[in-house]
Amino acid sequence: MCTKADMHLKDRMKPAQKLDIAVIGAGWYGCHIALELKKEGHHVVVFEKQPDILQGISGTFGIRLHKGPHYPRSKPTREACRDVFEKFCHTYPELVVAHEQSIYGLGERDALGYASKVTPEVFHDVCNESPECRTLDVEQLGFAGLISAYDMDEPSIVIGNRLRSALKRRLHHASVDVRVGCDVKEITKADSKQQVSVDDSVHAFDVVVNATAYHSLIPAGILKSLPVDIEVTYQACIGLVYEDQTPQDIPFSFIVMDGWFPCIMPAISTNERPCRDYLIIHGAYTVMGSYDSLQEAQDLLGRLDDAVIGTKVRSHIEHELERFWPGYTARFVYKGWRGATLPKLKTRAEFRSSLTFERDGVIYIFPGKINNVFNAAEETLTLVDYISKQRMGVLPLAAQSTSAVHTCNGVCYTTQSAFSTATQELAQKPSAGEQSTSNLQSLSIMDPEFGVGVEL
Ligand SMILES: Cc1cc2nc3c(=O)[nH]c(=O)nc-3n(C[C@H](O)[C@H](O)[C@H](O)COP(=O)(O)OP(=O)(O)OC[C@H]3O[C@@H](n4cnc5c(N)ncnc54)[C@H](O)[C@@H]3O)c2cc1C
């Protein structure tokens, strides 16, 4: 049962106590949350298992600083993207690169012959939620197979070494203690402390933030304690990299919606201009498999090689790109591919913002878009403050909920959380056989040797 006690959001402005906090995982979520916790005066240690920061999903794929139209069926996702868009640009100006054009087109038919999942009217309205949105003349654009198209100021976030060096500088400047090559094996509770085990050593903290992209240290059965019944799938995702033979000084993006369509976005990992590398993902062909366990998704990713991607996947992708951009393959040359495993929520509306919740002194982050690092950090600070006030006795330990934090089944989440604001979307799952990105098994369709999967 959920009850309320008294703590207001504004109270978070004055941290009750400086805590020792471990952040596990140095992707976009871990790095940003560590910086925000440090600003509040907490003692923060980041543990990253890789030899360097940002070697996971963020440093490879976190490209578009979304304004919303990529999620035409999920209003909460679009709102969450827009709410923090300006804040992101303002906080990380050196990491945001403006485009010549960011084109969102509504495709006539997707790769499997289906009509777009949204009507031209809905697509128009969704794009025009961004006030600067311009309607483009599809006849003059030089593309094909589009019903309508819009241009908006949706920039890219840099990735790779450029992102890595910039965030390293910020973490160093803020004196955040970052320990790389530290694979956290276990978190155990001892009295009021959390014991974090790394190799042979154990470190004690007041609070732990699990920012491992929901990959590690997730207690069995925790989903059952959450206030909304959510389902998670782990996906083996890839992206294909192409080099632009006639690169323009200012990059562009071209996204076709809404279904099994292609996306072209700049992959900016250096300060060099012009931008030559573009990353291609496709609704039908780059989510190679969807599984209940991370291990299965990682196994599939481990089995992919240049032969499978460079032949089977690439030919489907290039066929699709030519369909919407006649002449694409004459201008862009295939360079290679990248892969990662991504957790995704199964929702009918394709909800893609982050979820943040706490149990037993550990704050779990289920990642969304890169924009949502701000939502996750804000919610983390509120939860940390709640824990700290409970420990100081400002709030009774038995306090179930406050005006800023709800508690259900021992799990705490904030009133800003998607558990509070997008309950209905989170609860609505795609039905069996429904066309959804959460049950994609593209590789088994393109290459039956990899096993029979759910039909697209
Ligand atoms: C193909 C694709 C395209 C995408 N495109 C976009 C886009 O255009 N725009 C956008 O906003 N988002 C996009 N996303 C989503 C976005 O990139 C991710 O949701 C986000 O980067 C996740 O960030 P993270 O910090 O949670 O994860 P990560 O960046 O993966 O960081 C997690 C870190 O935790 C570390 N770790 C894991 N376990 C442990 C452990 N036990 N001990 C220590 N360290 C550990 C990992 O090594 C890793 O460094 C895309 C995702 C994919 C897959």
Automatic annotation (TrEMBL):
Q: Per the record, GO CC terms?
A: cytoplasm
Report domain FAD dependent oxidoreductase positions: 20-339
Chain coiled-coil ranges: none
Q: Which domain of life is it from?
A: Eukaryota
What SUPFAM superfamilies does UniProt report for this protein, alphabetically? FAD/NAD(P)-binding domain (SSF51905)
Q: Which InterPro entries match?
A: FAD-dep_OxRdtase, FAD/NAD-bd_sf
Protein name per UniProt: FAD/NAD(P)-binding domain-containing protein
Source organism per entry reads: Aspergillus eucalypticola (strain CBS 122712 / IBT 29274)
